[in-house]
Structure formats: structure tokens, C-alpha cells
Amino acid sequence: MFISDGWRDYRVLDAGDGEKLEVWKDVVLRRPDPQTIWPKQNPDIWDTADAHYIRSARGGGEWRFFKKLPDRWTVRYGEMSFYVRPTGFKHTGLFPEQAANWDWMRGIISKRPEGFRVLNLFGYTGAATAACAMAGANVTHVDAAKGMAQWAGENRKLCGIPDDKIRWIIDDAGKFVQREARRGNVYDGIIMDPPSYGRGPSGEIWKIEDELYALIESCERILSPNAKFMLINSYTTGLQPTVVYDMLHMAVAKKRGGNIESGEVVLPIESGGWLPCGASGRWEG
User: Fold this and answer.
1) Helix, strand, coil proportions of the chain in percent (round to 5)?
2) What's the pLDDT score for residue 235?
3) Which residues contact 38 (CB under 8 A, 6 or more apart)?
4) Which of 175, 191, 171, 172 is nearest to 183 (CA)?
5) Dihedral sign, CA of 209, 210, 211, 214?
6) % of the chain beyond a pLDDT of 70
């Protein structure tokens, strides 16, 4: 397991019956989590939620607020700060379980920060981008959604990262990687956090089971000769850590050597146990 247990501004109080109860700085949120199929361990604390995301039988869902919350607020992890807010898709703009991966990448980059180039595909609101940039890397942040890139840019300013440390690209991840290969551009580290299903800015359809392996192969071609890492994150049900391991082995390690580790990314639950939060695969050169 990759355990993200270094938080002070985020905690999982309890989980069960398909939900989780979390503290984001001073705000308590109650959100769905289909993997928590066990009973709630501390049911008496669930009425402390400031907001509750309730799924609709017709699909989707909505937030029910029990007190007025700020439009957005900040949470800190180490020296990094990020804006969070409840969105219409139950998310908050940050995946705190990824802190274990931020720490891993920062540790690699800090050994040789000068000139270290990172490509962050499906970059979302830029937490991994900020982590790598603050460790000294120059980061190319790619996301198909302009709104997410704008949010990531606001996080950059909040972290105090110089603007010239990050290049912002609004594009389909696969097409961008192919163009980078034709241009001869290479990277020392590559991150990808692909959705199960999505659309690019020109309507390109992404299905992870059809596209992921080819994307990993394409990314291997733009790793520099002395590349240090590739990180793959998946929240897709059924895409087990072993599957991620095998893809990294076939597409990257067989050509370049290095070491691979894969596992579940988890958060500690204060009432006991671990909250499973998807799978990560790490190749280190």
C-alpha cells in the first residue's frame, strides 16, 4: 500500500455504508464512496457534517448544505496550499490520497532538480504539478478542460511558484504526446491520472481500457535517456495494481530496466482501518 498519512489539514473521520466523513481544514464533508461496504464504525459523529453529497436515483447528485460555506477555502500539505470547494460532481478539486505519490516524486526530483522536466497528463487542478515544481522541476501541465487548468493556475499562485516553472497546455493527452515525439521533446518524469471515460477539447473519446496501454507506450518514447520516473494513477474499478504493474513492465521496464512497484493508494481512517483510493504504479529508472 501507498499510505498518505502526512496530512494536518485533512482527515478521514469514519467510513462505511457507501460513504466517507472527512475534515477539510475546518469543514466536514460527507461524500459517497462505493468501496466502503462495511458498516459505519462511529455513527454518532456523522451528523457533524457541514455538507452532504446525496446521489440521485436518476444519476448524478447534489450537495445539501447544513451551514453556509465559503465559495472556496485552502488546505495545506507541507509548504503547498490548494484551493478546494464542493463541486457538482461530488469532488473538491483535490485528491488527498495522492500525497504519498507527491512525496515520492519530490524525493526523486530533489536529487537532481536542475533541468528536470516533468510532463503531467490529465493534470486536473495541478496538485502533482505544484509538488514537482516546488521540488525544482519544470513542468508541462496538460488537461483538456480549460476550467481545470485555470484552477491549477490559481493553485500555482497560492503556492508561490514562479510562472515560468510551468507550461500550461489545453489539449488531448494522447495527441499532445504524439506531437511531442515528432518534435523530439523528452521528459525526465511523466505522470498520468487518466479518467475511466472522457472527451478531449475537440470531442475525442477516451476509454481507459482501449487507450491506456497505447498511451503508456507513447510516453515511453518521450522519456529522456536518463529518465527517472513514470507514475500511473487509476481510479477505475477493476483496474488492479497488478494490471498497472504489468503495463509498466511491458511498455517501459523491458526496454529501459529500472524498478516497478504498484499498490493501492490509501488514507487512514481515524475510527479504524484504511480507505482504498485507487491504484498507482511507479516506474523508477
Assistant:
1) 30, 35, 35
2) 83
3) 15, 16, 17, 273
4) 175
5) positive
6) 94
